[in-house]
Amino acid sequence: MRPSPHGLTCRLDAPAKLNLCLEVLGRGSDGFHQLRTLMATIGLRDTLEITATGQGEPIRLEVLGHPRQTAGVPTDGRNLVVRALELLRDEAGVDRGADVRLVKRIPNQAGLGGGSSDAAAALLAAARVWELDWSQERKIEIGSRLGSDVPFFVGAIGDRSWRAALATGRGERIQPTPFSAGMPVVVVKPDAGLATAAVYQACQPADYAPADDPDRTQSVAAALAVGDWRRMAAWMTNGLQHAAVRLAPWLDRVRSAFDRCGCAAHQLSGSGSAYFRLFPTMGQVRIKLMDEPGERLRAFCSITFDDCFVVRDLKIIEGTSGLFVAMPSRKLTAHCGKCGMKNHLRAHYCNQCGGRLNESRVIKDADGRTKLYADIAHPINSS
């Protein structure tokens, strides 16, 4: 936190998450589906900066980043960040405003929790700049009113040791769980997204975990605590995956693509459409996805930041024998004049700060834009 000419300013990272295991237990008396899930943060993250303003001032939100991530993102009360700040202001009796700058990198409608993470970061940052001496428990309670995933992110952002947690109920009851070390993962984000409400609506009783089924989520958490990758792979599941495939049959082609390149332990994250696969070592990522001839999900790391390998400009195409990811150039020649970050040759916007790159240094795609389709990241940060 730092002072500014207008008031205190706080900047926080808002990480994405993966559901390493997700079991749907049925509908509760309140009509919401009851879950048992294990969530972990990944290196892909948004950045949120809040500056406190004077009494009677409104909450103003500016959203920056690649047009693909910011298109359709509202900046008024429909945005969860604004709703979080308005709720916090009402609960605390604060009469001050805030200027919020949000740099989006997490894809929307991906099952990666971007909106919930942004809201949690907003709660924590605003509590600092408005100088509220609130406990973490109280912030988590406020977060639970905004969305089922928000309490997890309040804990994960507020406490660096809290990077994985078991969640029950609607997902709002959180219990941090230990982990032994970071674990590489490949996350593929197809072009189309899925609305969370629609996926839950498509969920059928046949998708529910049987009452006499063993607690797979606890088993995955126990394996995660000791770094047993094979045990994790044996117990991983996502009870929403069948519902998501009913809505978007093309997701089954993503699953088949992972199968064809010899990948085990792969599944949808949350309600999708992001799909991921765990690996025991970074070397295995390179072997499975970069070095083996004839594989179906080839990828090159074009930039790195925060221990997160990021694949940009990957276009998913349908070939005669299945799903492919088109190969981008590996050159890094588009320099951001604002922060100095190297970006992919064809990038239009800086991956680090969201600033627009010099058009003279950019080669446009056939449709005049650059697309984000896949990320390679460390899901569980050991530092």
Keywords:
2 domains; 11 helices; Ribosomal Protein S5, domain 2; 4-stranded antiparallel beta sheet; disordered C terminus; 383 residues; alpha+beta; globular; 7-stranded mixed beta sheet; Alpha-Beta Plaits
Helix-strand layout with pairing:
Elements: E1 2-3, E2 8-27, E3 33-55, E4 59-65, H1 67-70, H2 80-92, E5 96-104, H3 114-129, H4 136-144, H5 150-158, E6 164-169, E7 173-176, E8 185-188, H6 196-202, H7 216-226, H8 229-235, H9 241-247, H10 251-260, E9 266-268, E10 275-278, H11 282-291, E11 303-305, E12 308-310, E13 316-319, E14 322-325, E15 334-335, E16 342-343, E17 374-377
Parallel strand pairs: 4-5
Antiparallel strand pairs: 1-2, 2-3, 3-5, 3-6, 6-7, 8-10, 8-17, 9-10, 11-12, 13-14, 15-16
Helix pairs in contact: 2-3, 3-5, 4-5, 6-9, 7-8
Describe the structure.
- The chain has 383 residues and is α+β, with helices and mostly antiparallel strands.
- The protein has two domains: 175 residues, Ribosomal Protein S5, domain 2 (2-Layer Sandwich), CATH 3.30.230.10; 193 residues, 2-Layer Sandwich (Alpha-Beta Plaits), CATH 3.30.70.890.
- It has eleven helices and 17 strands.
- The strands form five sheets. Strands 1, 2, 3, 4, 5, 6 and 7 form a seven-stranded mixed sheet that branches.
- Helix 2 packs parallel to helix 3, helix 4 packs antiparallel against helix 5 and helix 7 runs antiparallel to helix 8.
- The chain is globular.
